[in-house]
Amino acid sequence: EATASALLLRAGLALLAWPVYLLSFLGIWEPFCKKVFFPFFLEKISGAHEKKSKKYKQELFRNLPDFRGPSGELRLLEIGTGSGSNFQFYPAGCKVTCSDINPNFQEGLSRNMKKNQHLHYEQFLVAAGEDLRQVPSGSVDAVVCTLVLCSVQSVSSTLREVLRVLRPGGAFYFLEHVAAEHSSWTYFWQQVCYPTWKLVFAGCCLTRELWKNLEEAKFSELKIQHISVALPWMPIEPHIVGYGVK
């Protein structure tokens, strides 16, 4: 639990961010954040994050072609596609279904689609990770999710949906920021920033121990690596990367 000094600093941070809290109270912040601020901010930060995480993503997605279906095609569903920064890592001819709870990333998305014409884009679904009912059970070979599990309402429901839509033998790929080691300064700052961060960044939770959710989900095989992706002044350095097989 947050210590007294963390709580004191947390209150100080909330005071600094009072205009956002006020706008939120008036019901103005959430729609503005969803439509304007978050897509804009995410585009900016994903550029920096992309540079730092590129080598991990190249390594992560290298074995995607191994999960092609019996027909030889690779049908991939991406949860929380955002502006499509992962497209560059998918193998040629891959059939991609994009989904995001927020439909306001269109500008960056179409830019990345134009850049990555080696893929077939099937459809774009406006859907939450916990509710992929538009995707039939067992219909995809791979599901990808990067920097999304921090802000879903329920991690376990999302993973249940992932396992439902995957065909047997299909794979779930992830790269996510997670809670730091509890005795570390990073974790202290995650505690301090938590409520204000969550409000400002569209529900993003800093202290989720996502490796535990993944271990509890029913994957037949699970590979998780703990890595560090440092961004200046951001309390999201600890990450996990890997994949699970249904």
TrEMBL record:
SUPFAM superfamilies: S-adenosyl-L-methionine-dependent methyltransferases. InterPro entries: Methyltransf_11, SAM-dependent_MTases_sf, Thiol_S-MT. Keywords: Membrane, Transmembrane, Transmembrane helix. Gene3D superfamilies: Vaccinia Virus protein VP39 (3.40.50.150). One of its GO terms (molecular function) is S-adenosylmethionine-dependent methyltransferase activity. The chain crosses the membrane at residues 7-29. The gene is Mettl7a. Coiled coil: none annotated. This is MET7A protein. The keyword Transmembrane helix applies. Residues 77-174 form the Methyltransferase type domain. It comes from the Eukaryota. CDD domains: AdoMet_MTases.
